[in-house]
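Predict structure. Input: Putative 2'-deoxynucleoside 5'-phosphate N-hydrolase 1, 114 residues.
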Amino acid sequence: MKIYFCGSIRGGRCDAELYGRIIEQLQAYGPVLTEHVGFKDPILKDIEGDDVAIHTQDMAWLEESDVVVAEVTQPSLGVGYEIGRAVAWKKRILCLYRPTEGKGKFVSHDPRGS
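Output follows.
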C-alpha cells in the first residue's frame, strides 16, 4: 500500500518532528511517498525549488498513492488542495487533528488572518 502523507510545510514546521513520528509509524504499512514532509528541512533534493515542478511531483505521488493521511491541525491551503484532489481521485483519506493545538484557527481569505 502506497501512502501519501500531507501536513503544513510552510506554516507547520513546528510540527515537523510530529510529522516524522507519524510517517515512521505509517512506514510499517507501506512506503510513504512524501516522507520529506517529516524532515526538519523538507527541501526535495531531486526537484529544483520550482513551485511548478514540486506541484507536478506531488500530484504524481498523490495519484500513485493508495491512501492519503493528512495532519490538518495547522491551517494550510496546500493540504486542503491535496485533500480535494484525493477526493476527486476517490482515494481513501484519513485526517488527523489535535483539537487543543489548533486553538480554533481557520484558513481565512483575509491576508491579515482575521
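The CA atoms of residues 26 and 83 lie 18 Å apart.
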